[in-house]
Design goal:
Blueprint (H helix, E strand, L loop, with lengths): L6 H62 L2 H11 L4 H12 L5 E8 L2 E6 L16 H13 L3 E7 L5 E12 L5 E12 H7 L9 E6 L10 E4 L9 E7 L2 E9 L4 H35 L3 H9 L3 E7 L4 E5 L26 H17 L3 E7 L6 E9 L4 E8 L1 H52 L5 H32 L8 E4 H18 L3 E5 L5 E4 L1 H17 L6 E9 L2 E8 L6 H5 L21 H12 L3 E7 L3 E9 L6 H7 L1
Parallel strand pairs: 16-18
Antiparallel strand pairs: 1-2, 1-5, 3-4, 4-5, 6-7, 6-9, 8-9, 10-11, 10-14, 12-13, 13-14, 15-17, 18-19, 19-21, 20-21
Helix pairs in contact: 1-6, 9-10, 10-14, 11-12, 12-14
Length: 664
């Protein structure tokens, strides 16, 4: 039938049939592709959620386990004396608990009767309560004494009406024969809202909906107690959270469920379907025009004009014998090069490039193989990278296809530079973490040695020696806590999880707050710590970051200033900048030490005048936060005469908050 149709109409019918066939095939492939990308997208989101849950679950379990360690203090008291007064107990726990925002209370109950609690204020009614008379506590205490391990109870409503997570530990007395008898229990109550807030589960901007089950540490078999219970019916991602004596199950799904993940792929699928239709349409059009192109020179020339390569023939001496006017590389090659020589274009080919080009022509003729070279040609602002593909045409001529590859080469060079910087950064971090590992090892080994000595020679050593060991353990634990806190803050800065949130604030409040916190340490070392303010002290700053900057630098000044010294924190406004200076009369530093202060690969421990220890990580965090404020820091010091840290920040009265936040 088609043979009776005129040629153009026949080509049109054939092209339509070919286009429809191709579109049908593409549609079938796209349907399968849609299913695969939906599965892949959901799997990627599940992996992201799992990583998030592992991080938050580890942090949640760590926060609970760390607080359960306070029960060991009560155990030490019981083993040491067999009894303790409420006043003695309050004195022992107040110093370690009052700075911990997660602690609601710490309690001991001899034979199940609450005998001491911290804090006492507001909890007086709890004293004297017999836990064994409370049905919800009796079975728990019996199991606790039977198993002899710390367990987690809750979240549950406590005796005073608040809701908390409680870690109970059994306490025993050991007589001279080594026989162990049950003395009572100790428990620490943790604030539930603060616990979930600090673990990142109550953030209103979270991308996921969370839920927790496993009340009383019963894991997947336990009751639901936090979050959105509905997610359990939507195939959530779950991880196990280890808590003392049991587990919790932390689960999550996307905020709008799994449907939003698949919906995100629908637009891509529709676009691909449209592109497939357009491709099929273009294919049909190509079928139609292919036959016509044989006799239509105008269409042929138009097609050539769209080719991205510049095509020409060269003989072995570098003479242009033919040029196909494709329109490509007009910015480099002039029109009508036929009859000219490569040497006629010194602005395109310098002597080195000309030698490479001519040598490659001879090689293509001699070997009869395709030769490919990449050259940077042109001059000044017209310089570009080209790729030349040279094929033998005859015994003395070649055909050359040249392409503009400037974008690709720039990307390759940028990638190489980026990889170089990444390798350098990784090398710095590797060295830094080796130093951190060393600083973690020393206090841990010190704690181990002190604990072994206490355990082995407890009955032989004096109370004064015991107190000395306990103080040593407390100092070591404080050192570890500060190191871990700095590490956590630094890692959050590196991952971009600390957001720069500026506001116009008075620097004097920042300085006074830091001096107030450090005053006790200064008093203990007989150091004069004071502030001096300019009459104008307001600037645009992030309060938490600025507190961290001043607090770290004041702490360092206290550390390296001997008894009887002086530390001054001053502010002044000059030329539109706010200058904050921290000056001390301490031991000072050499030029070499100053040059390494803020370098990640040079962070190291240095002992203070009273043998205080640190890692140098605090100064690195200071530099990160100073940079966030577009500030600078200058260090002036002389060995034996003290140091001055001078920070300069732009006051920035003309920029909007949005502009500053966007820039940082």
């Amino acid at each position: 039938m088609l043979t009776k149709i005129p040629s153009k109409k026949k080509f049109a019918v054939i092209s339509i049939l070919c286009g429809l066939a191709l579109w049908g095939a593409c549609s079938a492939v796209l349907i399968k592709y849609k299913a695969s990308i939906d599965t892949e997208a959901i799997e990627n989101v599940r992996n992201n959620i799992h990583s998030d849950l592992v991080e938050k679950g580890a942090l949640l379990g760590q926060k609970i386990s760390a607080r359960s360690f306070y029960n060991r203090l009560a155990e030490a008291v019981v083993k040491g004396s067999g009894n303790t007064t409420r006043e003695r107990y309050t004195q022992l726990v107040s110093d370690i608990a009052k700075a911990d925002t997660l602690i609601q209370s710490i309690t001991i109950a001899k034979k199940g009767i609450i005998s001491a609690i911290y804090p006492v204020e507001g909890l007086e009614s709890v004293l004297g309560i017999n836990l064994l008379t409370l049905p919800e506590r009796k079975n728990m205490l019996q199991n606790l004494v039977r198993d002899g391990k710390t367990i987690t109870i809750g979240p549950t409503k406590m005796i005073v009406g608040d809701t908390g997570v409680m870690c109970y530990s059994p306490l025993y007395e050991i007589d001279n024969t080594g026989r162990k008898t049950w003395w009572g229990v100790a428990d620490v109550a943790i604030k539930v809202p603060d616990l979930f807030e600090i673990s990142g589960l109550s953030n209103k901007t979270c991308k996921y909906r969370y839920a927790l089950r496993g009340k009383d540490g019963r894991g997947a078999q336990g009751d639901f107690f936090y979050g959105d219970k509905k997610i359990y019916s939507d195939n959530p991602v779950s991880v196990t959270v280890q808590v003392p004596g049991g587990t919790w199950l932390l689960s999550a799904i996307p905020v709008n469920g799994w449907e939003e993940v698949s919906a995100g792929q629908d637009v891509k699928f529709i676009i691909l379907h449209i592109l497939a239709f357009l491709f099929a349409l273009a294919f049909g059009g190509t079928v139609y025009t292919t036959q016509l192109l044989h006799d239509n020179k105008k269409i042929t020339n138009t097609t050539l004009a769209g080719i991205k390569s510049h095509i020409f023939n060269l003989d072995i001496d570098g003479n242009f014998t033919r040029e196909i006017p494709t329109g490509a590389l007009k910015q480099i090659f002039p029109e009508n090069v036929e009859g000219t020589n490569l040497r006629d274009y010194p602005d395109i080919f310098d002597e080195d490039n000309l030698a490479v080009f001519c040598e490659t022509i001879r090689k293509a003729i001699d070997t009869r193989e395709l030769q490919i070279i990449e050259l940077e040609v042109g001059k000044d602002d017209k310089k570009i990278w080209i790729e030349a593909r040279i094929n033998r045409l005859s015994s003395h001529t070649v055909v050359v296809n040249t392409y503009d590859i400037t974008g690709r080469k720039q990307a390759e060079l940028a990638k190489a530079e980026s990889e170089k910087q990444l390798r350098s950064a990784n090398a710095q971090k590797d060295k830094f973490f080796s130093i951190i590992a060393h600083d973690l090892r020393n206090p841990i080994l010190g704690q181990k040695a002190a604990l072994e000595m206490l355990n082995k020679d407890y009955d032989e050593i004096t109370d004064a020696e015991k107190k000395e060991y306990i103080e040593m353990l407390q100092q070591s634990a404080s050192q570890l806590s500060k190191l871990l806190e700095n590490l956590l803050t630094w890692s959050r800065v590196e991952m971009g999880k600390i957001v720069f949130t500026p506001a116009y604030e008075d620097v004097r409040y920042i300085v006074n707050d830091c001096i107030s916190q450090a005053q006790q340490t200064a008093t203990n070392k007989k150091i004069t710590l004071k502030a001096e303010f300019d009459h104008k002290s307001k600037m645009l700053l992030d309060v938490n970051m600025m507190l961290a900057i001043v607090r770290n630098l004041v702490s360092n000044a206290l550390k390296f200033t001997p008894e009887g010294g002086k530390i001054t924190v001053s502010t002044r406004e000059e030329a539109g900048n706010m200058e904050i200076t921290i000056t001390d009369t301490g031991v000072g530093m050499s030029e070499k030490t100053i040059s390494e202060l803020f370098k990640l690969d040079s962070a190291k421990s240095t002992h203070g005048t009273n043998h205080e220890v640190g890692t140098g990580l605090g100064l690195i965090l200071c530099k990160e936060f100073i940079d966030k404020h577009d500030g600078t820091v200058e260090v002036r010091s002389e060995v034996g005469k003290g140091s001055a840290f001078i920070m300069t920040f732009p006051i920035r009265g003309n920029e909007s908050l949005d502009e500053i936040i966007e820039k940082n």
